[in-house]
Amino acid sequence: MSDQNQLGDSRSGPPHIKTPNEPNATERPGRSRGKISQFLGKVTNGAIKKVSRSNLKDSRSRDPVLPNVDREETQIGTFKMSTQYKELVSSTITHVDLHIEHIEEVVKKYLQYAMLSHRWEGREPLLQDIQGKCVYDSELDPVGGMTKLRSFCKTARDAGYNWAWSDTCCIDKSSNVEVQESVNSMFVWYHHSALTIVYLSDVPPSSKSGGLAKSAWNTRGWTFQEFVAPKVILFYQNNWTLYRNDHTPNHKDSIAIMQEIKDATGIDRPAVVAFRPSMHNAREKLHWASTRVTTRQEDIAYSLFGVLDVRLRVDYGEKQDKALGRLLQEIVARSGDISSLDWVGTPSEFNSCLPASITSYEAPPCQLPPLPEEEIQPSVSSLRKTAAADFASDLYTLLRNTSAPRFAAQRLHLPCLAFNVTEVRRRMGSLTPESHLTYEVKTDGLHDLLITTAETLVQFWPARPTERKFVVIRPWDRSLLELPGFSTPSNYKNNAESEEDYGTPPSPSDDWSGGSPVKQGMPDLIQSRALRLLVRLGQPFGAFLLAQQRSGEYKRIATDYDIIGQIQDVVSVGDLMDIRTIEIL
């Protein structure tokens, strides 16, 4: 990895370390400075390695390192030349109660680093421009990106940090291995920074309230994770003064600044402050990223690796369609979260259930209002003493045994409730773009649908059948079972979720051995869940239209608007719907 920019020792020694010049300093008998240095060297070496690895304990990297710092040997050498190390030597000589924990704390504080978040502009200094040099050397071009780099280093040094990191010159972009590691570790590096400095080049000091909200910094792909990952962040105007002269130690605690961020990005303060990288509810994170842009099209996907806690191969040249497809495939395959399938727009060549562009997530997700509890209970009571109770229990058992979605080799295996399409007719005179058509679609078991799409569909009806098969499906959402321990985890909790709590369906044998639990004396609680499921299945839902291919698999028909389906009669729908897993190309 390349050299990290050291800012030099500008701070006084850390607190609570006495020097020989202070009162009551008495030299420890029998301890020579040489032996003390040898002892401290050994402890320091171990402390630096410990701090370096603990800073990246959340990374899956096999060789965790601080962001592009020199190797640990260089860190050790640099620290041993610092004021802090010299004070440790003096303190060790004069104080018998200096513990290893204190030494480790001094090392940890010395290694704290600041990171830069900014918008690339013009000629930015690269690693090769500054390697082996000091950023303040007069031989370096003092204009453009170098001026920004120097100002960043000075700001970090004035804030008390010895180390600074900038993506322009701390990544060797000629090394594919280093680029790969950097892309996959960037979120963790920002998260473990002591301070992230955001430079707003388009916000002058004369800017009034709203300058941050209008800044192009909010529109860049990489700055999304650079904002949510750090614990402490400060915004600076283009003259390197604090934005709006706000001296809050952490601008994530500034209500006024966070309101501007919300106005610009839609991300509110509670979500930012408590953000944790996760694949859960991926749709929301994709929505936040949907209006952002990157210079290299693949980066719109790569910049989300850390946000979604995904580690994948970096392959510039594969284009956005494939890069985004690989990312979304990984999310579904590993988490079972199918919220990323909720989009409208142009389908991907990677898989028809995925979008070709991140912009397809700009529209809000299809979230229909849930049925109020006061309406569920009367419906459950009315069904309890009817034949629907047996049907509900059989349906519950069948859905409980349904496998989780699988996604591999660009093929999606999606468990769903499928309804055969019996009629497709084009609606004439509809107010849609000339290239798009609106169709009236009839199915077995559902209310009639209106679907607007850029694709030309085969028109058919009972008197004019077609050999091609179409189905409308409801992707299966396992949370409708209300299984114990299967609560939807918050995006923002900092507690680890076990596979048993979320993501891995409980074994069907956990509650019963098979068959209909009603007929085997199903407990009232289980019966209630089955009836509640039946009531909920009768509510409107987000649907997909699929067309069967010659080889038997299906492809999703992309639409301009959400398809909203609803079962006509949930009690008698059993013979009209098929619960199965469909393979989608």
Overview of this protein structure:
- The chain has 585 residues and is an alpha+beta fold.
- The chain has 3 domains: 5-199, no CATH class; 282-361, no CATH class; 373-584, no CATH class.
- The protein has helices spanning 33-54, 72-80, 83-94, 100-110, 127-130, 145-158, 176-191, 211-214, 223-228, 255-265, 269-273, 282-289, 299-302, 319-335, 373-384, 388-400, 524-537, and strands at residues 5-6, 113-117, 163-165, 195-199, 233-236, 406-408, 411-426, 437-443, 449-453, 470-475, 541-548, 554-556, 563-565, 577-584.
- The strands form 2 sheets. Strands 6, 7, 8, 9, 10, 11, 12, 13 and 14 form a 9-stranded antiparallel beta sheet that branches. A 5-stranded mixed beta sheet has the order 1-3-2-4-5.
- A hairpin with a 5-residue loop joins β11 (541-548) and β12.
- The model is unreliable at 1-5, 8-30, 56-70 and 488-522 (pLDDT under 50).
- InterPro entries: HET.
Keywords for this entry:
585 residues; alpha+beta; 17 helices; 31% helix; disordered N terminus; HET; Heterokaryon incompatibility domain-containing protein
Query: From the helix content, strand content and strand pairing, which structural class follows?
Result: alpha+beta
Specify the helix fraction band: 25-40%
How many β-strands, per DSSP? Answer: 14
Principal-axis shape: elongated
Q: Which sheet architecture does the biggest sheet show?
A: 9 strands, antiparallel
Percent strand equals 5-15%
What is the CA-based Rg, rounded?
A: 30 Å
- Distance linking N and C termini: 41 Å
